[in-house]
Amino acid sequence: MNKTYKKIITLTSLVATVWLGVGCEQTLDVNTDPNKTVVNPPNLILTSAEAQLGFSMGADLNRYTALFVQQIAAQNGRQTEAWDAYVLQPTEVNGVWRTNMYAGFLADTEEIIKKGASIHPAYLGISKTLKAFGFSLMTDLWGDVPYTEALKGTENAQPKPDKSQDIYPGLLTLLDEAIVDLRKTSPLVAPTTDDYIYSGNTQRWIRFANTLKLRLYLHMANASGFNASTVQTFIANTPATDFMTANSDDFQMRFDLVAQRQNPIHQFIVLRTDDICTSSTTVNLMNGKSDPRRALYFTAAPFSPANLNIPPTGTTGYVGLRNGTAGGGVNTNLSRLHTYIRGAVTSTTIPAGPTLAVGGLTYAGNASLNMLTFAEYNFIRAEMALKYGTAGNAEEFYRAGIQFSMSDVGVPAANATAYLATSAGTLGTGSAAIQKLIEEKYVANFLVSVEPWNDWRRTGFPILQPIPVTANPGNNGRFPRALPYPQQETDANPLLKAIQRNNLSERPVYWDTRTTGQQ
Hints:
Low-confidence stretches: 1-37, 352-359
Order of helices and strands: HHEHHHEEHHHEHEHHHEEEHHHHHHH
């Protein structure tokens, strides 16, 4: 992993005792008095935790899952092209597991939680919510992972992996605890601008925590033994104002608040020009509906300043690459990621030569990185009403999901209204409705890490294009269902080595019970 990507937020490591117990002790050689206790205040640790989360959600984790679910494609013969063919080595996930998550973001949240009553309860509520979000990612990516014995440092260097189906109830309990903490008052110093996500607004954190619970329930509902009355009761007993209520409640990392911060997706494109482009799966899906979000998601192809901000009509003008077909080359006649992902265009000067497709555009790089949005909340409610009989009208939630996605992206209101007036704006019923709903959610969740892949694993939608057999002869046409455990951890922890996967299609996570459709 290129260390340059970590300029996302210019912070020095703030927690000298950032540890987990997954395989090694880490020491830090610093010129300080060993007899003096270092106390890291919660505001600095929270800033560090959220910064690392923002980086992680836009770095390798984003690329793995966006490639697997065909929101982007890879070319140029480098690492991402192997991932696009479902070749992901255990050594390549070392950094995501340890550096980014367990010994980074999750260790920071645990450090705050350990402070208990000595700090404002809002810090505890925020940290518990973040911890639940982080572990939901870990168990959705790998399945069984260390949870109850994790983050113990040298007390337990070989923590046992908990069953994913046991972790989920624990995360729901943790979110309930977080909400209790977030409702408390205290004379102690509360979080404000040190909270990059909601600036210390506890009501917005409560809304996110409850909306995250809905996302987890949606995953759990796919597994056998789920009782729909559980989520029916939860929704019925939760005030509407305690769920997300507007796009301003989006759980996202803002990169436009402070100068010199850049979205890590944009950073990767700058540093690895032409390694990623748009996938024909996503582009063709949107072309088929003349989706107005294309003009903000993608550049038109072939690129020129003249057509940069003029949406082509029909199915012409936006071109994606079929996943697994690059063959080491670079096709400059493809659409590339545009302003919604990279920020405003700051220069359209076009140099000559092979950099024409991407290098000629300069972006601000400060687009927000979405992790769970109000649009997604509406799609969740639509699916729950449609499949599980929860409160609310599925059609209305579905249309709201599209509407709020359009406004979040920046589509003019008239264009959004016109789109909703087409057949895309009518949900319908039955299995066809589920496909339509998930396809719209897939577009709205463009480059949201992990969740579009989760939706495909749950439902089989959208329909993905099989990669050519020649791209990965040993794969037999199967799609990725989980990540391999990191080599660093299986070498150090025999409990993880015993459950290592031989390939990405082996042993889906517990809620991925689908046995029909694309495998």
